Amino acid sequence: MSSAAPPDEVRLDKWLWAARFFKTRRLAVEAITGGKIQVHGQRAKPGHGIRAGTRLSIHKDTFAWDLEVLAVSNQRRPASEAALLYREDESSVLRRQDLLRQRREAGPADPTGERPTKRDRRQIQRFTSAD
Q1: Are 50 and 37 in contact (CB under 8 A)?
Q2: Which of 44, 69, 119, 121 has the fewest CB atoms within 10 Å, i.e. the most exposed one?
Q3: Which residues pair with 43 in a beta bridge?
């Protein structure tokens, strides 16, 4: 017998997965144990209970989110529904947009120092041998 009512509390790793911050729960657990996720400014464990009103700080790669949990879900739903689970702080949105703008203006990353792949080597050989 299952109830249609949403849960009052859900595990942190499950919520991060359901809110689509991480592709798998395993990646969410690794981020939590690595200290990349903070609940109310403190480190937490993957099984920490998350409720509506909880404040989270999420650091993933070079991006950071400061948000408030609005609802909990233990099911992964479409991205449009997942976005309704939280509200991001305005300063967090501006910070991330500024970082994206800086990345766009910087252009593509400099590939120097990397070895060419097998495909790249073949293209180089075709280019240099074509007279």
Answers
A1: no
A2: 119
A3: 38
Asked whether the beta carbons of 94 and 62 are under 8 A apart, the reply is no
pLDDT above 60 for 74? yes
pLDDT at position 2: 54
Annotated domain spans of the chain: 10-106
Instruction: For Cα atoms 20, 21, 22, give the angle at the middle one, nearest 5 degrees.
Output: 90
Give the span between the Cα atoms of 51 and 96, in whole angstroms: 25
The dihedral of CA 51, 57, 60, 65: what is its sign?
positive
CATH T-level topology, domain 10-106: 3.10.290
Q: What single letter denotes the amino acid at residue 62?
A: T
The helix or strand, by DSSP H or E, that contains position 86, with its residue range, turns out to be strand 86-88
Distance of CA 90 to the CA centre of its chain: 18
Whether 67 has a pLDDT exceeding 90, the answer reads yes
Of the candidates 50, 45, 39, 53, the one whose C-alpha atom is nearest the C-alpha of residue 74 is 50
| CA–CA separation, 28 and 36 (whole Å) | 9
